[in-house]
């Protein structure tokens, strides 16, 4: 286990999550007091283009057949989830709303990777990580300005597909480890979080369809306030 991996103790993980939530709240209060910063939207767009490229490199690292790349791939993938905190900060500073799916996802994926990817003995991690990185190549390119209905439709498929792939792999790996008398809690945590993301994503899509269909009543409006905004996965 590398020095960097050893750095991510439970206390460190709690500390970095506290930092993330505290910064999020501080920026929210800053915008509430002084107003949004429109120029941040431009920076966010360029950051999305940059992260699309990083996601491509990360994808290639994850699928590398060389065993010597395994630890580096695990650590880089885990660190990438902390880098994604910038998504939340950018949306808040530009005056946007962080929807339920977006917020929960960004606050918890770093814990998913810590449990399921970073530590040894988590076979099968590359299936979801690779699919997730590939999805991010397209998604962040889309956020960076690569618009189009076809791209949006592809993202709907890849977004759900990566989650299904991750849950299936967790179930298969977990079952095998259970039969061998090995620990399975990591797969349970990972599969549970992926299921949560899928549930929130489907809820968001359902609300979006109702809004587009013109079913805008008080109930839908309240529901949209809780889930509609800038999406991220």
UniProtKB/TrEMBL annotation:
The chain crosses the membrane at residues 12-30, 50-73. One of its GO terms (molecular function) is fatty acid elongase activity. It comes from Cercophora newfieldiana. Keywords: Fatty acid biosynthesis, Fatty acid metabolism, Lipid biosynthesis, Lipid metabolism, Membrane, Transferase, Transmembrane, Transmembrane helix. It holds the Pfam family ELO. One of its GO terms (biological process) is fatty acid biosynthetic process. It is found in: Membrane. GO terms for cellular component: membrane. InterPro entries: ELO_fam. It is a multi-pass membrane protein. This is Very-long-chain 3-oxoacyl-CoA synthase.
């Amino acid at each position: 286990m590398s020095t960097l991996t050893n750095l991510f103790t439970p206390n460190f993980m709690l500390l970095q999550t506290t930092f993330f939530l505290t910064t999020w709240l501080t920026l929210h209060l800053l915008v509430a007091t002084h107003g949004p910063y429109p120029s941040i939207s431009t920076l966010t767009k360029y950051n999305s283009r940059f992260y699309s490229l990083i996601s491509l490199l990360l994808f290639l690292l994850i699928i590398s057949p060389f065993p010597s790349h395994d630890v580096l791939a695990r650590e880089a993938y885990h660190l990438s989830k902390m880098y994604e905190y910038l998504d939340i900060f950018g949306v808040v500073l530009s005056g946007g709303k962080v929807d339920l799916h977006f917020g929960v996802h960004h606050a918890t994926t770093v814990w998913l990777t810590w449990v399921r990817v970073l530590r040894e003995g988590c076979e099968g991690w590359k299936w979801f990580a690779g699919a997730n990185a590939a999805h991010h190549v397209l998604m962040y390119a889309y956020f960076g300005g690569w618009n189009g209905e076809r791209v949006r439709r592809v993202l709907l498929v890849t977004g759900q597909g990566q989650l299904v792939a991750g849950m299936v792999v967790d179930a298969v790996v977990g079952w095998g480890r259970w039969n061998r008398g090995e620990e399975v809690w990591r797969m349970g945590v990972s599969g549970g979080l992926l299921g949560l993301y899928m549930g929130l994503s489907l809820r968001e899509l359902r609300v979006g369809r109702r809004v587009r269909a013109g079913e805008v009543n008080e109930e839908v409006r309240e529901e949209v306030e809780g889930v509609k905004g800038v999406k991220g996965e």
